[in-house]
TrEMBL record:
Name of the featured protein: Beta-ketoacyl-[acyl-carrier-protein] synthase III
MF terms in GO: 3-oxoacyl-[acyl-carrier-protein] synthase activity; beta-ketoacyl-acyl-carrier-protein synthase III activity
Protein species of origin: Kaistella flava (ex Peng et al. 2021)
Domain Beta-ketoacyl-[acyl-carrier-protein] synthase III N-terminal: 111-193
Listed Gene3D superfamilies: 3.40.47.10
Amino acid sequence: MLKSYIKGVGHYVPENIVTNDDLSKLMTTNDEWITERTGIKERHHRKNRNDSEETTAYLGFKAAESALKMAGMTGKDIDYIVFATLSPDYFFPGCGVLLQEMLGCETIGALDVRNQCSGFVYAMSVANAFIKSGQYKNILVVGAEVHSFGLDFSDAGRGVSVIFGDGAGALILSATEDENAGDILATNMHSEGKHAEELCTKFPGSKFGWSDRMRLEPENVTDAEVYPVMNGNFVFKHAVTRFPETMMEALDKAGKKPEDLDMFIPHQANLRIAQFVQNRFGLPDEKVYNNIQRFGNTTAASIPLALSEAIENGKIKRGDLVLLSAFGSGFTWGSVLFNY
């Protein structure tokens, strides 16, 4: 029976660190205000908002390089790519095909996943299904984001812009029949589209306008359409409800209990949400991995970035039972439970 085995992981962030004090020079805010509400102390942004080199695909490429090195593989060994992002290099095509070229892969399939904060658990779920079906043997799963080019660094946008950072994470999911190897034990994915506009970026899109509107009617394009908007309290309320649901669904499917977990990695949206869920399940600090304090919310990149860092730091070891869970824009939510 085929297993989905995590053969390698990797992550990458731009060198440029932006602290809360740095942001206080751009807008009316301060370190205490940001830390109290989000838990974030700093985040990484590419140095130049108009930089055409350090793109989402490039960040994904650097994370993928590390994952391939850990797995002892090259791009030629990969037979499928799943790339999760909400900030692609181009409106189209997606980042998957760009990564295929950067890595020197064969003319393999490359799928882009647009599920924002839940993007990586969706991507892992899809990759797992492909592996278990026998269709592919080595799938590269990537989550990467460059948020810094599309945020409103004024007082009007401070509720959103202080949260997000740039970064990438990747893993290699490989097929194996080794009875001693790890495996993905359970996945689930959910959505509730009636709340789509509670956390979204409206422009460009077929509902609110395309490039012709920006070019011909710039005076009619509002900041609320161009920049991300979020109903923070509404999102928080739903997040702390959906997180426990998706977590228990995954655990129940595998016949496991919260106390069986060796590590829980929540999407790094807000430290207060993560702490609420941790307390709800009675998980000790050593069984929950958070790095939002240093990286901010990197949406689709947050889970693989945290997973890679936790493995690199020895917090997760082979054989450990690990749960990844996410909630975000859409609304979408989901989980992946696996033995590493």
